[in-house]
Design brief:
It is a single chain. The protein is of the alpha/beta class. It contains eleven helices and nine strands. 39% of the residues lie in helices and 18% in strands.
């Protein structure tokens, strides 16, 4: 393919990488390749195999617009409008936190425990709830969130993935009517308030703070949930699996024990960091 006035693949990538690097973007080459693939409708391997191919004017304009958004440090997931999570693709925008790879551990735990009913607290995009429903066809999932905006995004993902028969969404911190679940999973805010200013601009400028920070020690939201699971709290689950910060394992384990779970385990992620606390009734 002859080069156009918009330049070649190599030229487009080179200029974007230089701009991203100057702006402090963490992975300038990867981000440039992903965005150009989106703009051209070609996969990254095809682009890299043909660096002298031309980029047509329509694709160049789309790429330029995406590059400008990324230079403002908008996350790639928001620029693309989607994020992959395990086997599913999720619509993704500023209404909810971007699903992180480490959160997939909660789905692994659900597969390990084999529940028939799951409550996902603080569902956001619906990532955990929908991945569990996708990979566990015999399981029904109730997903709740206190943010109406996040819940609207989760609803779009439920419909897009065809899982409305097994995933129910409710607005609130917990379901409106008391019921018992086999497993409760939650990726609640766990960043300390004083950590916020030191986070990357992709987070502080674009992601919802209420989905990330939770008091002086980062545990306010987890405490609030576990109080509801304790004696007289009105919420019942045979097991819980909570995502945590890497230095919160023992503190959250004690909170889970205080809520009545006798078998408590701190589970590490692939990087060897504490990432989840599991509690089971014994």
């Amino acid at each position: 393919m002859a080069a156009t006035a918009a330049g070649t693949v190599a030229e487009a990538l080179g200029s974007a990488v230089d701009a991203f690097r100057a702006a402090g973007v963490e992975a300038p080459r990867l981000d440039a390749e992903v965005l150009l693939a989106e703009a051209t409708g070609r996969d990254r391997a095809m682009l890299l195999a043909s660096p002298e191919d031309g980029v047509d004017a329509v694709a160049a304009r789309a790429f330029g617009a995406m590059v400008r958004r990324r230079l403002r440090r908008e996350p790639v997931a928001y620029v693309l409008g989607r994020r992959g999570f395990r086997r599913i693709d999720l619509r993704c925008d500023a209404r909810a936190l971007i699903p992180r790879p480490e959160t997939e551990l909660l789905v692994d735990i659900a597969l390990e425990l084999g529940p028939e009913s799951v409550l996902d607290v603080g569902t956001g995009t619906g990532a955990i709830a929908l991945a569990i429903a996708d990979e566990m066809p015999g399981c029904t999932v109730t997903a709740v969130d206190t943010s109406a905006q996040a819940l609207s995004l989760a609803g779009e993902n439920v419909v897009a993935l065809g899982l409305a028969e097994r995933v129910t969404l409710e607005l609130g911190p917990v379901p409106s009517s008391p019921r018992e679940f086999d497993l409760l999973v939650a990726n609640l805010p766990y960043v300390r308030d004083d950590e916020w200013a030191g986070l990357a601009p992709e987070i502080t400028k674009f992601e919802p703070r209420e989905a990330l920070t939770s008091g002086p020690d980062g545990l306010d939201a987890i405490r609030g949930l576990l109080v509801r699971l304790g004696p007289g709290g009105g919420l019942s689950a045979g097991a819980v699996a909570l995502e945590i910060g890497s230095e919160q394992g023992e503190a959250v384990a004690e909170l889970v024990r205080a809520a009545g779970y006798g078998d408590v385990e701190v589970r590490k992620d692939l990087a060897g960091l504490d990432r989840a606390v599991i509690g089971r009734i014994v």
